[in-house]
Known about the structure:
The chain is built from 14 helices and 19 strands. The protein has about 500 residues and is an alpha/beta fold. The chain folds into three domains: about 1-150 and about 285-305, no CATH class; about 150-275, no CATH class; about 310-495, Fe-S hydro-lyase, tartrate dehydratase beta-type, catalytic domain (fumarase, Alpha-Beta Barrel), CATH 3.20.130.10. The chain has a five-stranded mixed beta barrel. Strand 4 (about 115) and strand 5 (about 120-125) form a beta hairpin.
Amino acid sequence: MKKITEKDIQQSIADAIQYISYYHPEDFVKGMVEAYEKEKSEAAKNAIGQILINSKMCAMGHRPLCQDTGSVNVFIKVGTKADLDIQNELEDIINAGVAQGYTDPDNTLRYSIVSDPAGERKNTKNNTPAVIHYSVNNSDKIEITVAAKGGGSENKSKFTVLNPSDSIYDWVMENVAHMGAGWCPPGILGIGIGGNPEKAMLMAKESLMGHLDIHELKARGPKNAVEELRLKLYEDINKLGMGAQGLGGITTVLDVKILDYPCHAASKPVAMIPNCAATRHIHFELDGNGPATFNKPDLDLWPDIELPMDTIKRVNIEDLTKENLSQFKSGDTLLLSGKILTARDAAHKKIVEYKNAGKPLPNGVDLKDRFIYYVGPVDPVRDEVVGPAGPTTSTRMDKFTKDMMEIGIMGMIGKAERKQPTIDLIKEYKSMYLIATGGAAYLISQSIKGAKVLAFEEMGMEAIYEFEVKDMPVTVAVDTEGNSIHTTGPKKWRTI
């Protein structure tokens, strides 16, 4: 029997992380292509088109599908008959592979993991440790599934313990309706039913690693209650009208996956975890014949897509004032050119601290009459000015919006909806909220022609940058009158 070596495990993990950073699973691409072809909402079709263009660009350029290159989840099943030639702990070997994959100089990935989560929250600088789930079987192999899961979709996870007589369908539909667009639909919904709380959550996550087969199930018909529930949820969630990026449309989920397990008679644990438009996972086996190999997908898998330019307005940011923002209406698609600033959670917190202390920002940074882009970019490689730089979820910045308005910012760029108090502030200050497409990070980065750090350099991707952009694609999500596309869009396309 051939030996499975420490080197083989580490290299396979590293190669898998690199592979999934720029290749969508083929079944996911096919599902997105089908969604694009049948989408009737112009705004949603445009968003799906951007995601598919981005996906093909990443496959060709070997750069991340999303700037949030995720936290690593590893499912590893070790055969009791496998001949392992390892000296270190298996957990350490896996994490060495994760670190190797994320620090690859040819395709540097963003480090998003922080230690001391309840305290200092210090970045670990190599995206370790992974969250690892172990199991065993009687084989002579090791089976490994590697997934990278973005924070936007993880943050929308839900869990409850229902009464035995309660409806799982009703609970899921209620929570999906209130989940918003921060998880970057269209994507996949994973559900775990039964076991106990931790088992249900694990099954929900593990279900997301399965093959998209909802249309096969629909064609042959359900054989049990779980399959009936999958079909009903798939059809009715899409009838809610949320659509791509929450803009309103007919496809919100590409599939609904469910795993179940026996549970106590007095309870019904249910967990729900969505997977975003940057779905990233791969399964492989090690049998002693060296590290895993991963085949490149055929580029013919992706269609050639051109975005409609006849309805898009080109806008020079330097020409904008608070007085002329009212010309843009919710739902308008714009191509922005000019200079914008970036700031995420940590930078916003710092800015407010400086404001409350009556201190100017470092290096003379002035936020007045500027657009703030909520982004934490990937570090550049080769001749890039910046790596993939898609938007982060905007609701996390809602708590800082009043302070930012008082400072005098002109507008904001992010992804997903804003809460009503923030919408009210946008209307009060005659500001504007724009969205860029989540899941189109590499495409967006091509419109960034210059990038420099202005303040808080020690915070890495959380620093304040100045981006010089040329034809950056955005959509007006909330206009100066407080009209929100995330309210009007889904309402128009809802059929349930």
